[in-house]
Amino acid sequence: MRQIARWALGFLLLAALALAVGTFVPRGPEPARQSRIDGLVIPGEGPASIRVVTGVIHTDIAVPIERVPVEWLDRFAADGLPVDHPQARWFLFGWGSRAIYPTSPQFSDMTIGALFRAFTYDQTSMRVAVLGPVEWGEGTRGFSVPQSRLWQLLGAIDDGFEGGIQMALAQPGYGPDDRFYDGTGWFNALVGCNTWAAETLRQGGITTGLWNPLPQTLLISLDVHSSLQEPVNR
Q1: Cβ within 8 Å of residue 57, ≥6 positions away
Q2: The model's pTM
Q3: Mean pLDDT of all residues in the chain?
Q4: Given pLDDT bands bounded at 50, 70 and 90, which one contains residue 110?
Q5: Confidence class of residue 16 from pLDDT cuts 50, 70 and 90?
Q6: Are 125 and 182 in contact (CB under 8 A)?
Q7: pLDDT grade for 63, boundaries at 50, 70 and 90
Q8: How far, in Å, CA of 164 to CA of 27, rounded?
């Protein structure tokens, strides 16, 4: 029994150390890379105001609708998303476990079986939601992304879709304003929705922690390391 307790304590200490290192050791912006949106035109000029939106276990990235390629608008409109609604302001993008993400709009909806699959090895889904004017909560951070880096960030988001946004097949969402799509990559306890968000933010020129599997550690790392933050009052 004592041996089990020692192993459990050692594991907890190791996990705490990994989280601390992952949070406070910075990981800077990623170098430019090719993506499927090469050649598309991003509307507007100058920096774009994006939002990092965290929940209990998940992180999304919000991008102004007027700063995404028109091809994206056409694709999402064809899938029934209300991109032309006069109150539409933001696209909310997220990547997550296929066993959990499309089936669990609330944390309480998760099942033990789905959690086990997600923590071990699971396929992935991308979610796209259209938001109107938003009162951002405490779990939100705002960033000003330069035009050149906005292209990189949108390319990283597009890379999350299996086959790209133009080829993805829509699946039912939580309501009329969102859809799910097949995602790329594999989901597990080490590489999850929050590490995907951190990687995408680094493509946008934003410094994060070295490894952030939790939304709380990602927010701390952004507060500690990033110099691109801006107010989130709109």
Answers
A1: 107, 193, 214, 215
A2: 0.92
A3: 88
A4: confident
A5: low
A6: yes
A7: very high
A8: 27
What tens digit of pLDDT does each residue of 51-60 get? 999 999 999 9
| 206 closest CA partner among 57, 51, 55, 96 | 51
Residue 145 and residue 71: Cα distance in Å, rounded?
Answer: 21
